[in-house]
Amino acid sequence: MDYFKVKIAGAVLAILVIVAVLATALPATGFFAAGQATGETTKVRIGMTPLLHGLPMYLAIEKGYFTEAGIDIELIKFEAPNQMIDSLMQDKLDFTFVGGPAGIAGIANYKNPGKMMLYNVSGGDLVNPADFLLVPVDSNITKISELKGKKLGILGGSIQWRVLATELLAQNGLTVDKDITIVELAPATQVPTLKAKQIDALLTLEPMKTIAVKSGAGKVFLDGPMEKALSNPFWRAGE
What we know:
Shape: globular
Helix content: 40-55%
CATH class of the largest domain: Alpha Beta
Strand order of the largest sheet: 7-6-8-5-9
Number of domains: 2
CATH topology of the largest domain: D-Maltodextrin-Binding Protein, domain 2
Number of helices: 10
Number of strands: 10
CATH architecture of the largest domain: 3-Layer(aba) Sandwich
Mean pLDDT: 78
Order of helices and strands: HHEHHEHEHEEEHEHEHEHE
Largest sheet: 5 strands, mixed
């Protein structure tokens, strides 16, 4: 519970800071001036993907913490992480919270210096992994090398996850498109696709892992593959 209190406080504080920065950086006209004069709330557009990392944000909204701070949150859902970064660069978003790909954000910021500000990263470690490899419940696969000739599902619409999966597979002697086929899937389609056995394994995050296990669609054969193979801790997303 203390962990979530800290995360909720961090989410609210971060958005307050961004609102304050915007208010001081812009002329005292337009939206902010009108809001200050009338006591209206400040609207903040936040991009998100349906992942468990957003729980502190969802709870803070439900508890009314942003409303108390004078912030009107508009959550905008994306199925592909790169779409969030594109929208942020086009000024269609003020903020990303859940699933903003750190790698793509870094590239975008390199090409457009000063366009974005990274205030936080999210991920996992070997104790609390953020990623998982799943297989159908009746699968006999027990290690990554046994995926040769199979299909692996990953989060779609993000070159970041394709690159990460490619490196993970390469460390286990598998070459993408030669030894294994990668299938890009939106979060909402991952568990049904695994259950239907249209893929042989799934590299996924929460809550898809828990949904798959609880519904009998799949089982975990490796916790924290990225943390074990690439980096511990493994920071995959930025806000």
